[in-house]
Amino acid sequence: MQPSPHRRLVLVLSILGVVASFATLPVAFALHGGMAGLPPWPVLIAGMALQALVVFALAAHLGLRSAEHVGLPGAPLLAALASGRPAPLADARLDRAVMVGLGVGLLVVAVDGVLFRGVLPPSAAIFGEVALWKRLLAGLLYGGLAEEILLRLFLVSALVYLLACGWREGARAGTVPVVIAIAVAAIVFGLGHLPATAALAPLTPAIVLRALLLNGLVGVVCGFIYVRRGLEAAMIAHAAAHLPLQIAPMLFLP
């Protein structure tokens, strides 16, 4: 029996999440001195793959179902391919997503330089010493793929579903539930970066505010792109934002 299009789509998104999770390893090893204190490679890889597969499968399944119930786009391009239909590329406007992503990335760099210059201690400079390709790999894949599956497809969709009472027949996403969901997901996105920041520098109120504001800008933009154009456009925008962010690493740390 062939798996349903929904199951195929969940599988594709889960695999993307696993691949994106592995993309963080080069940066992690560079910052923490390689494999010291970690389990052997086969155990590490198997453990990461299993954990990521479960997490992203659940996030994809619940996010897609929530989006379907309240009329959010979900992942329209991948859903079409999973169903054997042509992907509606024109509707996704991926070229605009790239430009918006680059724009918000540059905006974050500018805001960081104006409002938060000198907030990070010298110890945080170690992040800028990590090879550019490692930072780009993590930013483009984990940021662009994994974080969008977790924060936009799952969290935004689930919050809209709850706020719009999506279990009721005919419930649809209204403006207020969508705006609240995007804002909450953006805050969670910012808070989610604090553990990585804490590994580089002690957390202060200014550093916490910086993480919330700068990451929140990206989160809000990607949230609105998601609800209008779908997951793929949000992924493209988020990945594009990491180009200026990683090229100017001392202005925007994880």
From TrEMBL:
Listed GO biological process terms: proteolysis
Transmembrane segments annotated in the record for this chain: 9-31, 43-64, 97-120, 140-164, 176-201, 207-227
Xref: InterPro entries: Rce1/LyrA-like_dom (IPR003675)
Keyword Transmembrane helix: yes
Record's keyword terms, sorted: Hydrolase, Membrane, Protease, Transmembrane, Transmembrane helix
Record GO terms (molecular function): peptidase activity
CAAX prenyl protease 2/Lysostaphin resistance protein A-like domain span: 133-241
Protein name as catalogued: CAAX protease self-immunity
Originating organism: Chelatococcus sambhunathii
Phylogenetic placement of the source organism: Bacteria, Pseudomonadati, Pseudomonadota, Alphaproteobacteria, Hyphomicrobiales
